[in-house]
Amino acid sequence: MSSFKASDKVWVYTSAKEFTPSQKDFLLQRAEAFLKSWESHGDKVKGEIGIAYDHFVIVVADDCGGNMCGRAQDAQVRFIKEIGEELGIDLTDRMQLAYKADNSSSKVLVKKMPDFKQEIQLGNITADTIVFNNMITTFGEFRDQWETQLKNSWHKQLMN
User: Fold this and answer.
1) Which domain of life is it from (predicted)?
2) Any idea where the domains of the chain sit in the sequence?
3) End-to-end C-alpha distance for the chain, whole angstroms
4) What are the residues facing 96 on neighbouring strands?
5) What is the pLDDT of residues 5-34, one digit of tens each?
6) 9-87 has which CATH code?
């Protein structure tokens, strides 16, 4: 994904459960087919779809010079919803918040927002906990701000 510009579009979708190897294979095969047919204003969209930490589906697309049509953006959302339905996983629930179990590990935990807030109150999640800021919208933000300490993310408002 390093060939994308900082201004290119990014969407991040979270699975509460880790993807199994067969789910990852299925998702990536379907993603390959989707990417071959993805268009904006009749032109092929240069994009990539990947899986991170066995919990996230990352969609990256050339922003078409800032001119990506709404239909192209809607198409990737539809694709993600279809994949989620086929796998029995809700990938579009924005109330699912992800964080690293231990800042030095790659183990990711996903909680619904009320449970996330409770983990903060219990001291299990702190201002220094690495969270995943899925509200990012560009490749530059993804690269620089997706994994960040809670105190540097919108998540900090949940500490009050």
Assistant:
1) Bacteria
2) 9-87, 96-159
3) 36
4) 112
5) 999 999 999 999 999 999 999 999 999 999
6) 3.30.1360
